[in-house]
Design brief:
The structure holds 2 protein chains of 2 kinds. The longest helix of chain A is centred in the first third of the chain and has 24 residues. Chain A has a two-stranded antiparallel ribbon with strand order 1-2. Chain A has 18 helices and 2 strands. Chain A is mainly α. Chain A is globular, with a radius of gyration of 25 Å. Chain A has one domain: Orthogonal Bundle (Ammonium transporter fold). Chain B is α/β, with parallel strands linked by helices. Chain B is built from 13 helices and 16 strands. In chain B, strands 1-14-13-16-15 form a 5-stranded mixed β-sheet, covered by helices on one side. Chain B is globular, with a radius of gyration of 23 Å. Classes of the chains: A mainly alpha, B alpha/beta. At the A-B interface, α2, α3 and α17 of A face α11 of B.
Chain lengths: 365, 496
């Protein structure tokens, strides 16, 4: 049936859609060209699927805590994010890429549970368009598309995005998330409430045990890597401990900071986006640490209560520069050659070689 | 003596794949016709010295050239020369000789061989190694005074013999060094050491072969300068570029050959051949080749007469009837054998048959994959001790690079394959690629292409980027020549 529809000439522009459907449902028919002849079984679809599996505890918790409407929010996000991706794929006459499956799920998880559906649609479309497609699509974007969408709606609709937070497990709405409560009254919410998802917050961020478990699962599979979450969470812990010691009125204590707001979601699932974070190992440490520093600074000293989104987006823009600096320092030319200043590794060669001895040996002809 | 263990960075330890060669050695029926390539092993093609219609004996020299860097080739069967095609540099054809086999038992032996080889002068041993064709084996040939390598025997500083079994499919050492061949191997090492400047010999074998390592150490007890290194079978552990730093503690001059720093790199079988040539006077007319991969109903090792067409061998070894892709020596780097007429020559050690079968099935991206190999732990197989299934399917669609970093993690030389690929694929080929990003450090192991979830042929792109750089006259010499005193450079550049 699919093939029949495909032959219709009005369907020609929809080629990428048919390709994607066929590949997803039936598998690909491509063979290796040789060099290598046999390859690893993992492909990008499965790669993205693993991230989605890692987010499942958070999604399930969101549905339990805020009701089945959350599924509608996710559906809207997928439909509109998918539409932007598909139309760009059709215009480019290239394949549909699977990245939007993750973007389309992470974006709604960052939204307040009471968010109107039309804002979800606008946000995900803006995020996919301005965060990814304008840069040339998958693999070329500078910013995390989900965060670009979140930033877009935060700036465009500030009142809707910051004032009404549903209390998990009930229909009551409050304007006080744990971070707001700390900033206004310095009352830290109990850790158990934060961990188990009993404090108000964005859809996907409240059930933090699930996020940590999902994050560790994704790291265990090697789909995500551990350096960024460890350095991000580590620097938040260390810096907030120092900050709280020096300025207890401004900087919240470390454990509260770690488990409040969107930090777990951001550290495990957004800062780790491989496209928008540095690819060098030292770069990852710098990136995570700087994210932590910015998060603590924004939370403690700015007009905003939450700083995860801003820190990651700011650091996204610095990621290429960080990589560049790391490459400049670790990949230096081996050029400077005056005898004696050669690198230690090269020195071994010089010590071992028998230049003098070999020169005396008879060569052919 | 057992050597220290030192690993290299990165790399990948392949799980057990279905279709490893069984430890069984058979001798296929003699082929009706053999096709002897005039270029076999290191390095140049030789000139034919027989004419159509000539009768040849098994082991008779049919091609030799004393001017280039080469070793002679021999008739592997007795028979009549049917066709001679000489080398043609313009068409880049090495040429070949076709021999129609005739039943005959007489085998030509090399003159001057002796079981008391230690009484032979070095000159005589070198002559036997050259005349037998054994000197063409290894990464850069075995140096003799007959210009079989780019360096002279006096230039040799170390000999490395390696068979760590790090490839996805590899010959079984219990067959290669089975029967009386272990003794021949130990003796062969001594012979090589005698002619190669007394250089220290390092034998790198799979650490899982504990019994073999013990027998080998016992056999070599009296040799102080032979070291046995048990190595974990981590790919690409058999590449000279990673073995030389790991075993000798010296850096490798990337972009040059091991011979340039005086290191001779051989496999275990070459050492056995050296023994057979010097002690038994046997010209190199047969190889033990592992026949493996899911394409063979029954995997095995075969003692193949050189020049046997692939089709003959595959039929006798029980290759499946379906569409198969035959690959020489390595599933990651080896060439695909073009057709059934393709001759098995002395550079073969493994033939892998992979089914040319696409993998389709409902929702393939969420298949559990109990027998799927993967660098990332996304398949059920990572929790199970199952044998993995190999096939020539791409197992996904090509996608843009998402900088997942797998290629970077597995790269044994610490370069950044995905970055080099991005530069090379877009044609930004400048000197910083050589000096800073070290594109010439790539050893071509193709592990990056293996693990890439976006199915990008990174290795291929890096290779073509390098070739383009060389065409523009940019090479790695500025990063190598000041630090190494390289040998044999005057003999380079003549390869056809």
């Amino acid at each position: 049936m699919l093939l029949q529809a495909r032959k219709n000439r009005y369907m020609k522009p929809f080629g990428p859609v048919f390709d994607a459907l066929e590949a997803a449902v039936l598998g690909m028919e491509e063979m290796t060209e040789g060099d290598p002849h046999c390859v690893d079984g993992l492909d990008i679809k499965r790669y993205m699927t693993v991230v989605i599996i890692g987010l499942m505890p958070a999604v399930a918790a969101a549905v339990l805590a805020f009701g089945p409407r959350m599924l509608a929010v996710i559906m809207v996000s997928y439909v509109f994010g998918g539409l932007v991706e598909v139309s760009f794929a059709m215009a480019r006459k290239k394949g549909i890429h699977e990245g939007f499956l993750v973007t389309g799920l992470i974006f709604p998880l960052t939204l307040p549970p009471t968010v109107p559906l039309w804002i979800v649609a606008v946000g995900v479309a803006a995020g996919t368009l301005f965060g990814k497609e304008v840069f040339g699509g998958t693999g070329r974007n500078v910013f995390n598309p989900a965060l670009v969408g979140r930033l877009f709606v935060t700036i465009a609709f500030p009142s809707i995005m910051t004032t009404s937070w549903q209390v998990p497990g009930s229909d009551a709405v409050t304007s006080a998330t744990p971070l707001v409560m700390y900033k206004t009254g310095q009352t830290a919410t109990a850790l158990s409430h934060l961990l188990l998802g009993q404090a108000p917050g964005s859809m996907g961020e409240v059930f933090r045990i699930g996020l940590i478990a999902g994050g560790i699962f994704v790291i265990w599979t090697r789909v995500s890597e551990w350096r960024i979450p460890v350095s991000y969470l580590g620097s938040v812990a260390v810096l907030s401990a120092l900050g709280h010691y020096a300025l207890p009125g401004r900087v919240a204590p470390p454990l509260f900071q770690l488990f409040a707001g969107g930090l777990m979601l951001g550290a495990f699932f957004m800062a780790t986006d491989p496209v928008t974070s540095p690819f060098t190992r030292p770069g990852k440490w710098v990136f995570g640490t700087m994210c932590g520093l910015l998060t603590v600074l924004i939370r403690g000293f700015s007009g905003y209560v939450e700083g995860v989104m801003f820190s990651i987006v700011i650091m996204n823009s610095l990621a290429p520069l960080i990589d560049h600096m790391v490459l400049k320092t670790t990949f230096r030319p081996r050029r400077p050659t005056p005898a004696g200043t050669a690198s230690p590794a090269a020195g071994v060669a010089c010590a071992n070689c028998t230049c003098g001895a070999a020169a005396g040996g008879g060569k052919e002809e | 003596m057992i050597g220290r263990r030192r690993q290299f960075r990165g790399g990948y330890r392949f799980a057990r794949f279905e279709g490893q060669p069984a430890a069984r050695l058979f001798t296929p029926e003699g082929p009706e016709r053999v096709l002897i390539p005039l270029r076999q092993g290191f390095r140049d093609a030789v000139r034919p010295v027989v004419r159509t219609g000539d009768k040849v004996r098994a082991g008779q020299t049919v091609g030799i050239d004393d001017t280039g860097v080469s070793s002679p080739v021999h008739a592997s069967v007795a028979g009549v020369v049917e066709e001679v095609r000489g080398p043609d540099g313009e068409e880049n054809v090495a040429g070949h000789i076709v021999i129609r086999a005739r039943p005959s038992d007489s085998v030509e032996r090399l003159s001057g061989c002796s079981p008391n080889w230690s009484d032979l002068p070095a000159e005589k041993i070198e002559g036997l190694l050259y005349a037998s064709g054994v000197a063409a084996l290894g990464d850069g040939g075995i140096p003799t005074r007959h210009s079989s390598s780019i360096i002279a025997p006096e230039d040799v500083e170390a000999v490395i013999v390696r068979d760590t079994g790090s490839e996805m499919y590899h010959p079984s050492l219990s067959v290669i060094l089975g029967e009386s061949r272990l003794g021949a191997f130990a003796e062969g090492l001594r012979i090589l050491q005698k002619v190669l400047n007394g250089a220290p010999v390092h034998v790198a074998v799979n650490s899982r072969e504990a019994e073999l390592i013990e027998r080998l150490s016992n056999a070599l007890q009296d040799c102080d300068s032979v070291r046995v290194h048990p190595r974990n079978p981590v790919y690409p552990g058999d590449f000279a570029e990673v073995l030389i730093p790991a075993l000798l503690g010296r850096p490798f001059p990337h972009g040059y050959a091991p011979a340039n720093i005086g290191v001779v790199v051989l496999d275990c079988q070459a050492v056995v051949h050296a023994y057979e040539a010097v002690v038994e006077g046997k010209p190199l007319t047969e190889r033990i080749v592992a026949l493996c991969g899911p394409g063979f109903r029954r995997t095995s090792h075969a003692r193949v007469a050189i020049g046997t067409p692939l089709g003959d061998l595959a039929r006798q070894a029980g290759a499946n009837a379906e569409d198969l892709r035959f690959i020489k020596n390595s599933t990651l780097t080896g060439p695909k054998l073009p057709d059934a007429m393709c001759p098995i020559d002395r550079t073969f050690s493994t033939i892998v048959a992979l089914p040319e079968r696409t993998e389709t099935g409902l929702l393939p991206f969420i298949r559990p994959g109990p027998a799927e190999d993967g660098y990332a732990r996304t398949f059920l197989s990572c929790l199970l001790p199952t044998a993995r299934k190999a096939s020539a399917s791409l197992k996904g669609e090509p996608r843009p690079c998402v900088s997942c970093g797998y290629c970077q993690d597995v790269c044994p030389t610490g370069i950044i394959p995905h970055l080099l690929y991005k530069y090379a694929a877009r044609g930004y080929l400048e000197e910083n690629l050589v000096d800073e990003l070290r594109i010439f450090d790539c050893i071509g192991c193709n592990l990056c292409s293996y693990v890439c979830p976006s199915k990008i042929g990174l290795g291929r792109h890096i290779k073509s980027g390098r070739e383009k750089l060389l065409q523009e006259g940019i090479d790695n010499s500025a990063n190598i020549l000041p630090f190494f005193s390289l040998k044999g450079l005057e003999n380079e550049g003549e390869a056809q």
